Structure formats: C-alpha cells, structure tokens
Amino acid sequence: MTDRCPTAFDQTLLSGYLDRELTQGESQRVRLHLEDCAACREELAELARLREATRATPFRPPEDDGWDEGPRGLPSLLTRHLGWTLVLAWAVVILSFAVWQLVTAPEDLGVKLLIASPTAGAVLLFLSVLFDRLRTYKTDRYRRVLK
Ligand SMILES: [Zn+2]
C-alpha cells in the first residue's frame, strides 16, 4: 500500500500533472514536491499505471473480424448485394448475347474467335469469382460454428 503523503498534497494535482493539464506554476510545485516526497512519487507511478491500463484497453488489436473486408451494417450489405446482382445480370445478358452471336454468326473464323475468346474469358472469370464466393461462404459457416 502507498503511504499517505505527510503534507496531504493535493492528489488532483498529481493526476493533472500526469495529464499535462497544469499551469507552469502548478507543474513546478508538483515537481518540487515529488523531489522530496516518496509517497507522492509512488502515488504518481500508481496513477500512471492506471492510465496506461485504461489507455491500452481501446487499442487492443482488433479481433479476426476486424480485418475482415466483409460488408459492415445493412446499407453496405444491401449495396453490395445490389452490386453483385447487377454485375451478374450484366454478365448473364452479355454471355447470352455472345453465345447467341456465336451460334448464329456466319462461318467466319475471325468473328467466331473475336466472340469466343472474351466469352471464354468471362466464363473463366465468373467461375473464379464463384469459387471464391463458395470458399468464403464455407469459411463463414465454419467461423459461425466456431463461435
Ligand atoms: Zn506528497
């Protein structure tokens, strides 16, 4: 336990000193008193420890979810879903059009290649996104089970 200060030094000055909220005169007074009062030095160290503990709390490293780039909150979730729906709808329309063009196009190899390669590329991209989504979905489920 901390000894009581023999001169009953104002403890609020100590905490003000710690927070650098004192005037220069008050600061000077605290410094001078601390020089010859072990009790107040100990008290100040204790205050500093407490400050450190409370200050450290909000800065804990975020938990796993904190690093997640998943949508936060309803608006973000809705716009993301809407975005995905639009992109998928667009992809479906473009792909259908491309396939239809491919089927009905004249027997021109150049035109077929022109249409076939972006179509194949789009299909591959779509599959890659789909696989990613599936994997995320699985991890999400796994995470939920863990909790
Ligand atoms: Zn003292």
Beta content comes to under 5%
Q: Give a count of the beta strands, DSSP E runs of length 2 or more.
A: 0
* Number of distinct helices: 6
On the 0-100 scale, what is the average pLDDT?
Answer: 78
N- to C-terminal separation? 42 Å
**Element string (H = helix, E = strand):** HHHHHH
Portion in helices? over 70%
Q: Which class do the helix and strand fractions yield?
A: mainly alpha
Quick one: biggest sheet?
Answer: none
Radius of gyration: 34 Å
> How does the overall form come out from the CA principal axes?
rod-shaped
Low-confidence stretches: none
Query: Which molecules other than protein and nucleic acid are bound?
Result: zinc ion
Would you give an account of this structure?
The chain has 147 residues and is an all-alpha fold. The chain is 78% helix and 0% strand. The protein is built from 6 helices and no strands. Helix 1 (11-18) crosses helix 3 (38-56) and helix 5 packs antiparallel against helix 6 (109-146). The two termini are 42 Å apart. The structure holds zinc ion. Zinc ion (ZN) binds next to helix 3. Residues 5, 7, 9, 33, 37, 39-40 line the site of zinc ion.
Notable traits:
6 helices, binds zinc ion, mainly alpha, 0% strand, rod-shaped, single chain, 147 residues
